[in-house]
Amino acid sequence: MAAKNVDAKDIKNTILNSNLLLAGGKIEGETRKFNIYANASCQATVPDLPPSVTKSDNCTATNDLIVTQLPAIGSTVSAGSMATITVYDQAGNQTTCNTNLVFVDTIKPLVSCPVNQTVAADNTCSFTMTDMTGLATATDNCTAAGSLLFSQNPIIGTALGLGTHAISIFAEDATGNSGTCQFTLTVADTTDPVVVCPTYFLITSN
């Protein structure tokens, strides 16, 4: 007589959300999360989740349980997704559970600054800082160049005296990663002195 499958309710391979443990994951109630990290092409590699799964069965030895996952190990994704893990016992019974693959971008934008600049001091012997961000360019692995947020230090409107000043340009991507570059801005006095000569000078003889 063929063996009768054990009722699923009696199987101990309850790797449902309440028993699924993921190394490096975050447990928040019944939700499991596993961070996956974007590379330079804004792709993340799906990790091997089964080794971190706690599993058991009433009849099948733990080492004989078969564990599979989707998306497949080593595949790439460009956004967060749901991973499904399935455990099979030797009788063909199966249980599945899900975990969130959280897509994380930690790569900073690459910012290129202009060459060092020299500007002329104004009539107050200073230079009022202008918007220098347009002189810089930036690229990012996930955020389009046109969507990057630029800022600078010193800020627009700052009065700079004579001499050389370090200027920093920042570019921030959609996930808050910020890249920076620096160049120097030299404020030079290029204005000739103003002199007013008398129109005539009376010289008396002796």
Describe the structure.
With 206 residues, the chain is mainly β. The chain is 0% helix and 39% strand. It is built from no helices and 15 strands. It has strands spanning 26-28, 31-37, 44-45, 66-70, 76-77, 81-88, 94-104, 110-112, 117-120, 126-128, 137-139, 149-153, 159-161, 163-172, 178-188. The strands form 5 sheets. A 5-stranded mixed β-sheet has the order 1-2-7-6-4, with no helix packed on it. The chain has a 4-stranded mixed β-sheet with strand order 9-15-14-12, with no helix packed on it. Strands 3-5 form a two-stranded antiparallel ribbon. The protein starts with 25 loop residues before the first strand and ends in an 18-residue tail after the last strand.
Attribute tags:
206 residues; 5-stranded mixed β-sheet; 4-stranded mixed β-sheet; 15 strands; 39% strand; disordered N terminus
